[in-house]
Amino acid sequence: MRIAMIGTGYVGLVSGACFAKFGVEVTCVDKDESKIEKLTRGEMPIYEPGLDALVSDGFENGRLTVTTDLPSAVRLADAVFIAVGTPSRRGDGHADLSYVYAAAKEIAESLEGYTVIVTKSTVPVGTGAEVDRIIRETCPDADFDVVSNPEFLREGAAIEDFMRPDRVVIGTDSTVARDVMRMLYRPLYLMETPMLFTQRETAELIKYATNAFLATKITFINEISDICDKVGANVQDVARGIGLDGRIGRKFLHAGPGYGGSCFPKDTLALVQTARDVGAPFTIVESVVEANNKRKKAMAERVVAACGGSVDGATLAVLGVTFKPNTDDMREAPSLDIIPALMEAGATVRAYDPEGTKEATPLLPGVVWCANAYETMEGASAVIIITEWDEFRMLDLTRMRSLLRQPLMIDFRNIYNPEEMAADGFVYHSIGRPGGLPVSAEKVLEQAK
After folding, report:
1. What domains can you pick out in the chain, each with its CATH number?
2. Is 18 a catalytic residue?
């Protein structure tokens, strides 16, 4: 089979390379000539573990090609996937579908023979129907079906998620389109991956409902952690206790500085707007959006409080700025709220991220970027962990004490054990856990001075 993947962003490139691994002939299309040129040289536009090797393998065996020539790719394809961006529209939170609709029009102008048009981009309910209308209006004689096939790829684990997914959702009423999609996903069918065939509108809503629910779980445990801070309970034990309930599950119950990334922020906003438009306000998710925004802004206040009430003139070491580990994605990252607030309060920020520096530099002007974690700590008054990269999990505490002006760590990801940190002489602040300090933080800080 042959497919065309319109868009070589995160979803398009990963999906295209994975389909090629399945044995499908894939042409990835992008209007950005420089991006296509870089891809042909083996340069990845995003950081995703294993993606460079997967793309290289596709190029070498001839099953994966990249081009700016959309018409030729579409004419030869049995299925055409729309995998372009759907960012939040400025001003109202709705998904910006201009790229999707522009792609639909260009596809219509190039169709030859029966073709399945697949919306892989995350789109609100009713988008598939509008894509269908655009294509029929542009090319009345076209023979096609429009299918919804939402992606469920986690950044940092996208290849594994595509190759071994929890489920594949396909929305269409066409039996012919179903057969084409079954053939495309045949390797997963043989692995007994659950395949949910449903209506197009239902498939579109499943994607938004999934992300909204996961964002709600994250926000729930974050607010539980605030209660834990007040009453001396341990949020990690609370998470284990409720997560062992099969009705709840353990995933997405890790307290932190708030969710970010390319999906949860924009998808929760888009679902809220859709719900309002149809007269069914989604008040739970509205509260989630508000609580998450407030939480990210409040994290800087925690740092200031941990530093004795002021960071004016202090140097602070920040470890990790991307919204999560194993990605270079800075979209809606908590660091974009935390770091500017600390700098506004008078702090100098020295930061290090294993993969995010290039993306973060223009977004965080004034930050001093360092080559490794320990360089950030030289002469710093405190070290702050924002993103839980693996290399931050086994830091040399003795070396850290020799570099820091005072042994103070603010750990927004609960990586370290409070009792062990106290035993090593650190004043240690985490999220929703008892400190385990043998003496008060104020006394230890006073001793450090």
Report:
1. 2-198 (3.40.50.720), 294-448 (3.40.50.720)
2. no
